[in-house]
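To whoever is on call:

I kicked off a structure prediction for a single chain this morning and the downstream step that reads the tokens threw a length-mismatch warning. I double-checked the sequence; it's 259 residues and nothing unusual in it as far as I can see. Pasting both halves so you can look.
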Amino acid sequence: NVSETVNVTDLIQMAEFGWGTYEQFFNSAPLDYQLIRGDNRRGSQNGSADCLFDGKYETKLCVAFYPGNPLYEVFKTNRPIAPTWYCLVTGDDTGYYPDRNWKAWQIYGGNFESDDEAVRDAEGWVLIDERIDCTDLPAANCAETYFDLNQGIMDKFQYFKLEVNRCMVDRAVDMQMAEMFIGDADLFQNEVTRHYDLAKADFDKPCVKSILDEYKAALADIKTATTMAELIERYEKALALKADVNASVIAFDDYERIV
């Protein structure tokens, strides 16, 4: 019931209206991470494990890695979450050093009374994701790779443990990763919106209509993704079709200049 406007002579207007809860508001905010313990902790120095959670793609965790001696890190988030996905970002020179990528790792979730209890061998860690002989991480610099958790655990956790067992070669090597971040269903919707906006483009010049229609359909499909695998597949399809539309626009422009 709108009883008054700013100017009584104006028409009443409003673009959108939506409901929300405090929980939805706070749960959609980005997570903060705190490294509790683990290997290669050297504060803000580049190469330290702290760089894995600093939000900067130009810094990285980089440490000598030996087969049979897994690297581990324990960290916590600023609020408990029920994680469903996570992202790894390759180092800034992985294109030149692809052997430094991870090949096998595990992620655990846990809830503890204090940071002191969240030690590597504590009881209460729950395996929430495991990768064995994984080749999904590309030999490219600062490349984002998304994963859906594969253990079917739906519980909320605030503490997490990472164990990296292998790199891409089974010998001593400098292991590295620029960033790691995790997310739940609410943060997934943020990623849907972000990828949709990245793939979106407005075409107002002549082009092949069938290609444009296919691009628009692929763009709309991004918004209905329910898993990270679906989201990235649909995003990459929309990007490819956007490139096809751009090529069509250029072809039409060239034709008009010729004739």
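Update from on-call: the warning came from a stale cache, not from the record. Cleared it. Sanity check on the structure: The helical segments are 22-27, 185-199, 209-222, 228-258.
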